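Re: that chain you flagged

S.,

Sorry for the slow reply, it's been a week of failed gels. I finally had a moment to sit down with the sequence you sent. For the record, here it is as I used it:
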Amino acid sequence: MIGVITAVDIGLAALNFGQSLLCRLPGSKRTPTADVRSRPAVLVVRCDAKIGDSLLCLPFIRYVRQSYPEHEIHLLHHASARAIFEQCSDIDRRIEITWNPSSPLSIWHRRKLCAATFEAIEPGVSYDAAFAPRWDYDLFGPFMLWYSGAKQRIGFSSKNNLRRRLRNFGSDSLFTRTVTDVSVRHESIRAIRLLDRDIAGLSKSLPSINYRWSAGDFQCVCERLAALRIDTRRLVALAPGAAGARRQWPLDRFAELGRRYTQALGAEVILLGAPSEAQACERICAEAGVRLQNNFAGRLTLAQNAALLSLVEQFVGNDSGLSHLAAAAGCPSIVQISCHPLTGDDNHANSPLRFGPSSQYATVLQPSVPAAPECKHGCTHDDAPHCILGVTVDQVWDVVVGTRRN
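Prediction finished late last night. Pasting the structure tokens below so you have them in one place:
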């Protein structure tokens, strides 16, 4: 990925290099005792706290299970992703971290935090292999693999993109094997390359994301809809939230879209989002003429959101965790509004070729050109919607009408 080198990049490069050297000191990593367990183990490390990225990691975990059928599969993840991973039958043991992986203080104390993470693991647990499946720069994965004491430590090379080359400077030495991959791949399949598997066929048909909710979650959602007298026969979900302002299509455009749904199609519109997005969803309801009781933002668990998304006939949202959850729930029509220009870098962190919904029923709308020269590789403005303003309500509406399956 091409971009401007910043002071943050240089500072992280120096810190990463110095801490990587300190890791090489004798006795710095975990040393398992003689293995008295009946089954060996494999470790997967995913420290980032994003819901969408965690969902896209599920296919990789499934392939790890297939590649190591006689091993226990251990996953190290952030506590905020618990609702995603706790229901995954391919995982035998979860190890949670609770500190903020983006905090400068966490990065400064990275070695201590990584070492402390494995102090609670029994001495007899021995990892035959450990994987860090993140392709973009990964401030904690290589260190976690080192301190796990795994015999094989496998991750992506810092040669893959400029940002990783800088911010992960020196940490390739913590792996026993690195994989170089500069091609454009969807993130649901890219990490499978770490397993030395042929993924050529997967690019044509993305793997399914197996996220499931309980019967109790589904019943709870159905009871709520019935109590509010919400008609599930023509149910449409709008989700205006996203991480970062550049990914957020304007609220007034979502409101106009909601008006067209109700007036032109007679659809029942509901709003979904996090608790912090409840007020924005309330505004959309008011401007679109949608009942306030149809605002579910902050009122459902992640599993209940997935259960609800399995009932809607169409989902429209930004590049966010909910769009990936809609794909995992089997939503029959997904429309994602992206901030990434069609002419931008295909390996950019906002590129839908990498992070679009993993569903054959998804359509991604992008601005045709960047809104400013500095955004030629990808939108750089995060204080307000910028390039995403190039996607109009009429464009979204044309796709909405053309892709509805009911």
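What I noticed first: DSSP finds 15 helices and eleven strands in the chain.

Talk soon,
D.
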